[in-house]
Amino acid sequence: MHYVSPLRPPLVTGHRTYHDVTHDIARHVENPPNLRWLAGLVVSLLFLGIFMFSLYRTLWFGIGEWGLNKTVDWGWDITNFVWWVGIGHAGTLISAVLLLFRQKWRSSINRAAEAMTIFAVICAAMFPVIHMGRPWLALWFLPFQNTYGSLWVNFNSPLLWDVFAISTYFSVSLVFWYLGLIPDFATIRDRATGPIAKVAYSLLSFGWTGSAKHWSRYEYVSLILAGISTPLVLSVHTIVSMDFATSVIPGWHTTIFPPYFVAGAIFSGFAMVLTLMIVTRTTFKLEQYITLEHIESMNIIIMVTGSIVGVAYITEFFIAWYSQVPAEQYCFINRAMGPYWWAYASMMSCNVISPQLFWVRSWRRNITFTFVMSIIVNIGMWFERFVIIVTSLHRDYLPSSWVMYSPTWVEVGIFTGTMGLFMTLFLLFAKFFPVINMFEVKAILKSSSEPGIYVDEHGYAIGHGGGHGEATPARHPVGPAAGAAYHAPDASSH
Amino acid sequence: MLTPTVSAPDMAHAAEHDHAHTAHPTKRYLLGIFDDPDVLLDAIEHVRGAGVKIHDVYTPFPIHGIDDVLGIARTRLPIAAFMFGCCGLSLGLFLQIYTLWADWPMIIGGKPHYSFPAFVPVCFELTVLCTAFGMVITFFLVSGLRPRVKTQVMDRRSTDDKFVMAIEQTASTNERHISDLLRQHGASEVNEKEIAVKH
């Protein structure tokens, strides 16, 4: 039995009723798209075009279109891969870890964050495939006996673990996301007026009726999925970090990598969630569901994980000195003061220094500031991966093979193009799927919305009866439990 | 005597099912419509206390504590999930031990053929994969959830903002008594619904 403090700020503002929740969220699916959405789609499709063209150049002319060379054989491709996978982690963290911790504020952001996970992993998975040069042989990744001999894949290789980790992560996230969508598809199905929408959402909703027996099983399934997704999300970036950590390259051969990568992934993922959420709440006018409380909570996570990442950077330096390995020491000095010092400086200022600004409460509750910060953090995290990959490689053990690496326009085009791919998928999702989890918001409405708690903007209780002017009579039943939401245990009381 | 407040969508639905009535045998249900989950929980206890059998309850979101008052047994899906997890783990171990140790042993980086620490990640991922897919597919199968062109619902508002308690009407049920009982315990409407029996 847990109690919800009446002093906790509301998570849904504006005195919404259950029907209001349905209406506010489902209308974006039902109405024709608005102009801002169409404009966004046009821009995204433009970037998708850049992606397709750069991809065509890569596949037709080969990896020679890229700026890679014999010394630096991983460049923007793997940087982008790690960056996108990392972004995806926040979605699973919100939907799984915060579910296990019973954080109610996850309810209105989990749907879009999970969608972000899936689209980010699609963008990420593209890079290892195309960087092979002959992507039509990608099926050699799979453990089947190839016809040219009895060879199997090498299960000792972290690159193969990656194949298993990323594909499991993608499919489990997809299942988790879809399972969450089923009750909401049923809501849209039951409101649908057009014949196509009726059939489409009926198919999508799997015949969901909201039966108590189904809900009972559904909750167990969600809980177990959350339970197994939590170690899964940690394993994915751990395995990605092992691509580097199990090698013998100074700067990569580091035991700190798994936790450091996971913290960085959460850090950049939450920044991307914020970028998307701030745009979504304005475009679709969902300020009552994605409130300043949500934004502040995410900013606090960014601040904490940003600090963890900062500690990791410093630890790496300390260990390089403490190990007394000259190659390791040189690698780190070269990172900070060598020819790529600007990348290192960008990483440090964006990831370590800038999140510290969130200690100021009024700044982490400022939407414009948060939006700018969310982009800065993602730039910083991209530079982190660039620094790790390129500065460790470009000056290897033989000074005669020291080189510089810079990308060609094809590499830049592929990277900016994946953003177009990502945004196109996200905009289509936002139009055709309910962008906020309606049933979860309804489930917390009684305990965590304004009419239930009566608090002022500073989070203090202001007494009974404040402001339900616009609430419909349906909200005030005449039953024995009417009005029980005020500092009472939530609906779990029985 | 019944259904004084049939709403517009239900009128449409009722018309839809007149047709079904002539073609198939049907079952009749009395639907108590509630506006609030706590009122519903209270009503379930009283209705069951009065000896009336509840067919099912349809709600827009999961209500904590409804399993106990409705007497829904705890699902055994977690056990199924564990079994699927064991299958996944065995698959992972078999795949790696068979390929790298039994079928085509190769020395890679001087490591032994059976190098368990290196097998952990793939074993783990396959465990998670099989657990997730096995459990969700089992859930769909036991709940009869699959893509349908048309879904039969008791009251379309039960996925929006209404909490619907369905009680099957048989020769032995007293409609008036049940209807009064529902209203007395907070039902805002009491409707009737006929559903074609599926074969």
Task: Walk me through the structure.
The C terminus of chain A is likely disordered. Helix content of chain A is 64%, strand content 0%. Chain A is mainly alpha-helical and 494 residues long. Chain A contains 16 helices and no strands. In chain A, 51% of the residues are buried. In chain A, α3 packs antiparallel against α4, α3 crosses α13 and α5 packs across α6. Chain B has 199 residues and is an alpha+beta fold. Chain B has six helices and four strands. In chain B, strands 2-3-1-4 form a four-stranded antiparallel beta sheet. In chain B, α4 runs antiparallel to α5. The longest helix of chain B is centred in the middle third of the chain and has 28 residues. Chain B is elongated, with a radius of gyration of 26 Å.
Short account of what is shown:
Helices cover 64% and strands 0% of the residues of chain A. With 494 residues, chain A is mainly alpha-helical.
Question: What are its keywords?
Answer:
heterodimer, A: 494 residues, mainly alpha, B: 199 residues, alpha+beta, 4-stranded antiparallel sheet, 4 strands, elongated
> What class, by secondary structure content of chain B?
alpha+beta
Strand content of chain A: under 5%
Q: Helix fraction of chain B? A: 40-55%
Strand order of the largest sheet of chain B: 2-3-1-4
Topology:
The complex is a heterodimer of chains A (494) and B (199).
Chain A: H1 18-30, H2 35-61, H3 76-100, H4 110-130, H5 158-191, H6 195-204, H7 212-245, H8 257-283, H9 292-323, H10 326-337, H11 341-353, H12 361-364, H13 367-393, H14 409-432, H15 438-448, H16 450-453
Helix pairs in contact in A: 1-15, 2-14, 3-4, 3-7, 3-8, 3-13, 4-5, 4-14, 5-6, 5-7, 7-8, 8-9, 8-13, 9-10, 9-11, 10-11, 11-13
Chain B: H1 8-23, E1 26-34, H2 37-49, E2 56-58, H3 66-70, H4 77-103, H5 116-143, E3 163-169, H6 175-184, E4 189-196
Antiparallel strand pairs in B: 1-3, 1-4, 2-3
Helix pairs in contact in B: 4-5
